[in-house]
Specification:
heterodimer, A: about 700 residues, mainly beta, 28-stranded antiparallel β-barrel, about 70% strand, globular, B: about 210 residues, alpha+beta, 6 helices, about 30% helix
Chain lengths: ~700, ~210
């Protein structure tokens, strides 16, 4: 490892990149690129061979494409699409531009290149952010007997910040990626149909933050093969193999060291498709080995270097991960009944050589089944979900396992929709779920159960005139239970009720009236509130909201909206319960809020719209214990313009979009930032 | 002559009723029975606040961290919760936070508390004044600074996290919940102002990886 002078600035970093030696990584990529670039030079003789080959193929369109392509120019289509824009909102002002170029060439080749640039200045903090980048993608079309894709990315960014204490920081990043993918799909070898894929790539990053380098240079090579065959009527078997090797250098802090990673996986899937059922069974196994430099991490896996010597802050890490997955999926249909079933088992282990996390194991089993029936006016479904998972850990410093943390989940959902009468629909939903968290041998105090039961009934009707009425009833029962005595004083049982009727009335072609009412009540019962040592009181909270909205379209260019919301809220605490079990509550406070909104939209001309809106809100709150009454008023006005036009649509379309709004607000929640500001989104895009 | 309601469809109602009855029987609770808890003996109860103010929801997160009680964290987040990391966290975990919502947050906090830790937390800096949420249905705190210190009980190692964030609260039903957490930038170690500490995004990333 090479050492450079470093500072003891905050270095909470993950998997750190490095400055390094280019030669090994570059050599691999050069070989791959030479192979790719060699193909176009042989275009002429390959073309004649392809014509002869195509004559013997049973793909007449290929021969037709080949023969006609000889008459085409090399570039069959060139398209450019530049865009420039400015956006401003309450958090930041951003200027940006993009240029996308698309080239289509003969033999279905294509090349696309995108350049982008942006500069952002934050309104909330001392921060500027500049980004530049380019992405390129080349596809070989039918030029070669295999599919060739060449991808390149360059991302450059620079963030400059000044925090509340006046400490400045510059974070910069220069990232390059080049990747060549060769693939061939549905290649028949006897009875096997095969997909092949090979990917060769190179990544390079030079970055720094708080004066610390964050560089890496790596090359990778990998491949995937998927083979499928039909073994019987309606039954197929597919196998896939994947492997990847990554090598290079990474730097961390003031150290540089080689890095390496190996990944491999193997999977087999048996698929079935018969008259009444279709699905698959799949088994897969994978492994990853990763070697890299990392900061020293504690038993939680977070960077822990404070107070350590320089030599002790960085370690050579090796990470190994194994995973096995079993999956089953089935869908069956018999008449109007359908049954869908999913089951999966996933187990994995993760081990670190240096990280304090040590070794962790996880198992995750899930099962979901849905039985549904749709016939005539009824749609019914019942779904059962089951999940069982655990994880365990042995930290590097320990000789025994921590103990398993179990998570069990069960849920049963019932759904029934029925068309009761003409244009009248009823929907009933009943949901029941239980989530449990259990620590083996009580290695922590967080054991808990959460029960949820919810019933919802909705009724809606639409008349021929367009009048619509809705009604909602909902009831929810929930228990939040901590099992251990150190936490159980907060256990609660909650009952919530909701009723929400509403209607929409198109009074005339140009007038619509809509009203919604919502009443919501929640009772909270602290399970151990009777105990003297538990300082909790049962309570209830109630809120009613009446909303009215009138929409007017007096003119095809003008729309007016008038809204009023009236909101009342009560909170109360239980003071006693009588011998018969009736509870009595004392109101703690009452709150009334009334808000009126006005909005207008006027289409001045095609693509030009003037908009504006305002609201005023009065809030009154009364605290019963003291008799104190507070009153607050708040409001906002905004006006704006929207301009959207397209020119030269038939030839080289030019799109212009402009939205500008000015906000002014007052009230107790309004800050200096939100009291007076502009919002804008302006951009111009041209295609030629 | 009495008027009879005409039912749409040709399926007899009896089959549907049978399905409903069977389902309701199964839903009767025979497989959904929680365990019996141990009565509290220590007398210590977590002083969670009723979420009648946005500030109370944030205070409850602090209590959840101090008592390592996951219910306090989960029940103060809205089901639509989203987390956006700061630049430094994103550079360490470029693909971890592409879709970080309520379920990911719940899995993270449970994994953190189950791993055996004690936590000190101070979720509002002294010079931050939470805006009044009276009558509002949504409110955003811009640039609140939080500080969290996590100690592993197995090896007593300690790691610190401090950052500024934008936190958005929404009122749903009668209560306030946290709907969005956007980490902005790292802040200095209170014990050493020349050193920047990571945000809680790094802690999230470590447990999610």
């Amino acid at each position: 490892m090479n050492r450079h002078p470093g500072t003891d600035a905050a270095i909470h970093r993950g998997h750190e990149p490095a400055r390094g030696r280019w030669l090994p990584a570059t050599f691999v990529l050069l070989l791959a690129l030479l192979a790719a670039w060699a193909a176009p030079a042989q275009d002429a003789p390959t073309l004649q061979d392809a014509v002869q080959q195509a004559a013997t193929d049973t793909v007449p369109d290929v021969q037709e494409q080949v023969s006609t392509s000889l008459d085409l120019p090399f570039f069959t289509q060139i398209e450019n699409e530049p865009k420039v824009g400015l956006s401003a909102e309450v958090r930041e002002v951003r200027t940006y531009s993009d240029w996308r170029s698309t080239f289509k060439m003969r033999r279905a080749q294509s090349y696309q290149n995108t350049l982008n640039w942006s500069w952002a200045d934050s309104r909330q903090q001392e921060k500027t952010s500049q980004k530049r980048g380019t992405q390129m993608l080349y596809n070989s079309g039918i030029l070669l007997p295999i599919d060739l894709n060449l991808t390149g990315t360059w991302d450059w960014s620079r963030d400059e910040t000044l925090n509340n204490a006046g400490l400045a920081n510059v974070a910069s990043r220069d990232f390059k990626l080049m990747e060549l993918k060769l693939s061939k799909s549905k290649y028949d070898l006897g009875r096997l149909s095969n997909d092949f894929e090979t990917v060769v790539g190179m990544k390079d990053q030079t970055a720094a933050t708080q004066g610390l380098p964050n560089d890496f240079s790596e090359a990778s090579i990998g491949g995937r093969v998927v083979s499928k065959t039909r073994v019987a009527r309606g039954m197929t078997v597919a196998a896939r193999v994947f492997g990847q090797k990554v090598g290079g250098d990474r730097s961390l802090g003031d150290l540089t060291s080689p890095s390496a990673s190996t990944t491999d996986s193997l999977g087999v899937r048996v698929g079935f498709k018969r008259r009444f059922a279709r699905g698959f069974v799949e088994v897969a196994r994978g492994r990853v080995e990763d070697e890299y430099l990392d900061f020293r991490r504690n038993n939680l896996g977070v960077v822990d270097t404070t107070g350590r010597d320089e030599a002790d802050k960085i370690v050579e890490e090796m990470k190994t991960q194994n995973a096995t997955a079993l999956k089953f999926e089935n869908f069956s249909r018999l008449g109007s009944f359908s049954l869908k079933t999913n089951a999966a088992h996933l187990s994995s282990d993760l081990a670190y050589k240096a990280n304090g996390l040590g070794r962790t194991e996880r198992v995750d089993d899930t099962f979901t089944t849905t039985l549904a029936r749709t016939a005539g006016a009824d749609s019914i479904s019942v779904t059962y979900d089951y999940g069982w998972a655990w994880d365990d850990q042995r930290t590097r410093a320990s000789t025994t396992n921590r103990g398993r943390q179990y998570n069990k989940n069960r849920a049963l959902d019932f759904y029934w929709k029925r068309i009761l009468f003409e244009a009248t629909e009823a929907v009933l939903k009943v949901q029941n779920s239980l989530q449990q968290s259990i620590a083996e041998n009580q290695f922590n105090q967080n054991d808990r159960d959460r029960l949820r039961q919810e019933t919802t009934f909705e009724l809606s009707r639409v008349w021929n005139s367009g009048f619509r009425a809705d009604m909602l009833y909902a009831y929810q029962y929930s228990e939040d239970i901590s099992i251990r005595s150190t936490r159980s004083s907060n256990n609660t049982i909650k009952d919530s009720y909701e009723i929400a009727p509403g209607y929409l009335w198109p009074v005339a072609d140009w007038v619509r009236l809509q009203q919604n009412f919502r009443l919501y009540i929640q009772y909270t019962d602290y399970v151990y509130s009777e105990m003297e040592s538990v300082n909790k009181n049962d309570d209830y909270n109630k809120r009613g909201v009446l909303g009215t909205k009138v929409t007017l379209d007096p003119w095809e260019r003008l729309t007016l909206v008038i809204k009023h919301d009236y909101n009342k809220r009560f909170n109360a605490t239980r003071v006693r319960t009588d011998a018969t079990g009736n509870s009595y509550y004392s109101t703690d406070d009452k709150q009334t809020t009334s808000k009126i909104d006005l909005a207008a939209t006027f289409a001045v001309a095609e693509g030009i719209t003037l908009e504006g809106a305002t609201y005023d809100r009065l809030d009154e709150k009364e605290t019963m214990a003291t008799g104190a009454m507070t009153q607050n008023r708040a409001g906002q006005v905004w006006v704006g313009m929207k301009f959207v036009r397209k020119y030269f649509a038939a030839t080289n379309p030019l799109d212009i979009s402009c939205m500008v709004k000015k906000y002014s607000a007052y009230g107790p929640a309004v800050t200096e930032t939100t009291a007076d500001y502009w919002e804008a989104d302006v951009w111009v895009k041209w295609k030629f | 002559m009495s008027k009879r309601w005409k039912f749409a469809g040709s399926v007899p109602l009896r089959g549907g009723v049978t399905c409903v009855l069977v389902a309701l029987f199964l839903l009767g609770g025979c497989i959904f029975e929680p365990r019996t808890p141990e009565p509290p003996t220590s007398g210590e109860s977590i002083p969670y606040l009723t979420q009648l103010l946005a500030q109370n929801a944030w205070e409850n997160l602090q209590l959840s961290l101090r008592y390592t009680d996951s219910y306090g964290w989960e029940s103060n987040l809205h089901s639509t919760f989203r987390y956006t990391p700061d630049s430094e966290t994103l550079s360490q975990f470029p693909s971890t936070f592409t879709d970080w919502g309520y379920e990911q947050e719940k899995a993270f906090i449970n994994a953190l508390y189950d791993s055996g830790v004690t936590i000190q937390a101070d979720m509002i800096n002294n010079d931050f004044t939470p805006p009044d949420d009276s009558g509002a249905t949504t409110v955003t705190w811009y640039g609140v600074v939080y500080y969290v210190q996590v100690t592993s009980t197995s090896d007593n190692s300690t790691t610190k996290y401090r950052a500024s964030a934008d936190i958005t609260f929404i009122s749903d039903g009668t209560f306030w919940y946290i709907s969005e957490w956007v980490d902005l930038q790292q802040q200095s170690d209170p014990d050493n102002e020349a050193q920047l500490l990571p945000s809680m995004g790094v802690l999230r990333g470590n447990f999610a990886s």
